[in-house]
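General statements about sequence and structure are easier to judge against a single worked case. In the encoding step, the backbone of a single protein was reduced to a row of integers, each denoting a local shape. The record that follows shows the chain in one-letter code together with its fold in token form.
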Amino acid sequence: MYFFFHLITGIILGLLISDFLKDQRWLIPCAIGAVLPDLIDKSIDYLLFPTTIGFGRIYSHTLFIAILVLAAGLAIWKVKKDPDLMAVGVGIFSHQVLDVMWLQPQNWYFPFLGPFKGAGMSDYFFVMTMRELKNPLEMILAILFGAAILIMIYGIKIPHSVSRTSRVVSIMATAGALLLCIISGILIGQGISHQVFPELGWVKPEELIIGGIVIALGAGLIWRWQKNVFEASK
């Protein structure tokens, strides 16, 4: 998976947990945790192992690190009522799931199955940057993420008390949620049928299934949000 899909997944999980626990503190650290493994491992890989490993899935992509952060985060959450580290752990684990790390057992279960395994790429950063820029899904997600940030910054100026505006937004959100459900079903069906979408960077059937599930969760969040908007407009 690529950067913005990881980020959006972290945001979706953060919103779901925040909504379930009625605690908004989960959102930002969960989103950070979802992209943290790539930020850490790609930096370490580039600086220390550019010609020996060179593919960006090492220490922060291991199950050991995910369990360690989750365990420490759970203890701090229970004792100090601070969910930040726990939320980061959830994000890290989501990243590993999206990267289907169990298909790379020697790396995911490191150090129990030996050293990391991978092909050296001295131009790794250039190759991955070009793949990111050529990925249409990533560009769409980047635009949506930027738009969401702008709405958060300037949205308070929108007159929420206007009933007609709220109803229009609710209808548009409902249509968007239904569209995402359809896309989710197609992706999951294609994954079950062992199809792939290499043009989107999804080269394993498992990635389509997991990606479809994430999109379905996003559709559920939009549906819940639009219901709140519609009720507020009454």
